Amino acid sequence: MSTPQDLPPGRAAAAGSLAGRAALVVGGSGGLGRAVAVELARRGAALQIHGGSSRDRLDEALREARAQAAGGAAVSGFLQRIDRPADILARLPGLGRIDIVVCAFGPFVRKSLAATTPDDWERVALLDLALPGALASALLPGMAGNGWGRMLFFGGTRTDGIRAYASNAAYAAAKTGLAVIVKSLAAEGARSGVACLAVCPGLVDTEYLDEHARRDLRGKAPRGDLLSARDIAGAAVALIAADPCAASGAILTMDAGLAF
Q1: How far apart are CA 197 and CA 178, in angstroms?
Q2: CATH class of 22-200+231-251
Q3: Is 59 within 8 Å of 78 (Cβ atoms)?
Q4: What is the tens place of the pLDDT at every residue in 160-190?
Q5: Cα–Cα distance between 84 and 93 in angstroms, integer?
Q6: Which residues contact 28 (CB under 8 A, 6 or more apart)?
Q7: Residues 6+ apart with CB under 8 A from 112
């Protein structure tokens, strides 16, 4: 990543601008991660987009982010299979300074508890919970040393509190656990300008849904339609761009009043 112009701690080029900041989006080649990557580029952040498996999806995300990038901000990307947190942590030293990390990556497992296998539990725990936690632990010291940093994580739908789940308890347990990481990071990073928050989105329209899934989810949506990934991304990035970040430590529900 090209090194962005240094800014004094706690100062951005303009209100809401991320010019001079360097961002990494893990899981940025599709879905909400791609929408967040584009929004970061729109606000002028130099950007590294991680893609998990598809070169085509990564290239599409790079084209969109470059087309939207403000002020000629650098946008680049890489493919990296992630089976364990160590897979991406090993790459971090080569990425240069990282002021903003977004983790929008992790498997969704829809199974009853009785059908959830030990491998399912391990994979969900490693990628939906340990991965964002390990990224936070690795990047917090550098951000604190620079006097500014932002971390944005994504929970699951309705994982803003402890609930029972009939078909995705393993996934929901991991995503609910993110709240401890977020609130702990917010407390530890407060004095050094490092903020963290998590967004629990509702029913969002992404390219991963087929028409059958869209129809089914629209029937459950409070307004009869799915949320826009761009709208969720815009609201989330606006919160982390604020300085000071008053939302640090928040577990934000963005589901338009969804109730099951």
Answers
A1: 10
A2: alpha beta
A3: no
A4: 999 999 999 999 999 999 999 999 999 999 9
A5: 17
A6: 34, 36, 37, 49, 50, 51, 61, 77, 102, 104
A7: 166, 167, 169
**Largest interatomic CA distance in the chain:** 53
pLDDT score of 136 more than 50 = yes
User: How far is the C-alpha of 235 from the C-alpha of 167, rounded, in Å?
Assistant: 29
3-state secondary structure of 194: strand
Residue 88 has which token pair?
A: 């991406």
Report which residue type is found at 44. Answer: G
55 in Cβ contact with 79 (< 8 Å): yes
pTM here is 0.90
Is the distance from CB of 103 to CB of 49 less than 8 angstroms?
Answer: no
CA distance 198 to 214: 25
**Residues 121-132: tens digit of each pLDDT:** 999 999 999 999
Q: Could you state, in order of their start, the residue ranges of all structural domains in the chain? A: 22-200+231-251
Take residue 180 and report the two structure tokens written for it: 């401890």
Provide the β-strand partners of residue 194. Answer: 149
Using the structure block, give the residue that is written with the tokens 């994580």.
153
CA distance 131 to 213: 28
Which residue has better confidence, 218 or 56?
56
In whole angstroms, how far apart are CA 70 and each of 16, 19, 63, 66?
12, 8, 14, 9
